[in-house]
Amino acid sequence: MRDLSGVFKAYDVRGVVGEQLDADLVRRTGAAFARLVGGPTVVVGHDMRDSSPELAAAFADGVTRQGVDVISIGLASTDQLYFASGKLNLPGAMFTASHNPAKYNGIKLCRAGAAPVGLESGLADIRADVEQGVPDAENTTPGSVTERDMLAEYAAYLRDLVDLSGSRPLKVVVDAGNGMGGHTVPTVFADLPIEIVPLYFELDGNFPNHEANPLDPKNLVDLQAKVREVGADAGLAFDGDADRCFVVDERGEPVSPSAVTALVAVRELAKQPGGTIIHNLITSKAVPEIVREHGGNPVRTRVGHSFIKQTMAETGAIFGGEHSAHYYFRDFWRADTGMLAALHVLAALGEQDQPLSELTREYSRYTASGEINSTVADQAGRMAAVKDAFAGRDGVTVDELDGLTVELASGAWFNIRPSNTEPLLRLNVEAPDQESMAALRDEVLAVVRG
């Protein structure tokens, strides 16, 4: 029996094509997924990677052999697949490895209504079925595969949620990174008062220009330069499967995902006063402050989409944001869509006359370090050393909701978490100003790396 623990991750299936992931494994995964959801139909989409069409077809073959039908939506962003799952109220499978290099591929699975499937919500059962051998369906007529293009419906749904009809004309540079943003952006932004300046819209799963991972600052350089060159009002950068969106202002300076979270939260609260807003524990302290100032109820969660979506379901939250530029909307089946967050930012910008840097300043109250990774041999030992170094001080509060979060009397705070997949500790620090942030950052790193 093959051990698939290296391929079946916490939230998805992912691996190197030809080594860890091939058509046979994917076909069996499709069959196991069909058994899990019980039919009658599964919707399947895929990104622009060279291996994606073949793997998506193999998955569909596995599904139909179990007597379950497939609706293929073809090329799609991940949030477009979530839209299809929500709109059609069907379970879905998206073939993508997001921002990973070209040699990777993977499958993001969801139940009907875009409800997430992770290890604790069905993925472990699928893995066990695949490892042990998925039984053939007996006395079952094979399902059929039909094709349905849902891009226009997806675009119309998003535009109905955010009204840009009264916006002043905007010029926006969009870096699709040769990923699925090049497929979705032209349709979503059609007929809006926005001039798009495209960068790398050609679909190419080999990512010839730069990695489709805007979380890494080096992958924003081209976007920043183009924004300044053409005098744009804003810039948007999408990751490979276009479910995350990063924003830069008219100067080419990044707008933190925490500021975007706060801005969108204020807009959602204006529509639904008193609503609950979810934020993970690494977003800026400004997020819960601003939510409260606008009459909302902020709820803090662990990092990770499964925790966000679960908490949104439990609380009826209207919106949720993460430091990694994942944005979740109740109006979008609690799924994450960077495209919808981008439309909110542009609508806020277009309905007033200030530049984006001024508009977002009120949402950016503190100085953050960004995520700093340290390779350590003993994660638990280093975490304990950090706790010992700070826990006994006057005015210090400590919690361990996700890793270790320490808040000082000055208002500065940090969180340090172990990576689940690598021998790393991840540090995030925030403080009222650059000097105190740098001092706290250096003090914590001295303990971690000591």
TrEMBL record:
Cited PANTHER family: PHOSPHOMANNOMUTASE
Name of the protein in question: Phosphomannomutase
Signal peptide: none
Co-factor requirement: Mg(2+)
Gene3D superfamilies tied to this protein: Alpha-D-Glucose-1,6-Bisphosphate, subunit A, domain 3 (3.40.120.10), Alpha-D-phosphohexomutase, C-terminal domain (3.30.310.50)
Source organism, top-level taxon: Bacteria
InterPro entries according to UniProt: A-D-PHexomutase_a/b/a-I (IPR005844), A-D-PHexomutase_a/b/a-I/II/III (IPR016055), A-D-PHexomutase_a/b/a-II (IPR005845), A-D-PHexomutase_a/b/a-III (IPR005846), A-D-PHexomutase_C (IPR005843), A-D-PHexomutase_C_sf (IPR036900), Alpha-D-phosphohexomutase_SF (IPR005841)
CDD domains xrefs: PMM_PGM
Domain Alpha-D-phosphohexomutase alpha/beta/alpha as annotated: residue spans: 7-121, 153-252, 261-366
Keywords: Isomerase, Magnesium, Metal-binding, Phosphoprotein
Species this chain originates from: Goodfellowiella coeruleoviolacea
Family: Belongs to the phosphohexose mutase family.
Domain Alpha-D-phosphohexomutase C-terminal as annotated: residue spans: 371-446
GO molecular function, one term: metal ion binding
Keyword presence, RNA-binding: no
GO biological process entries: carbohydrate metabolic process
Pfam family, one: PGM_PMM_III
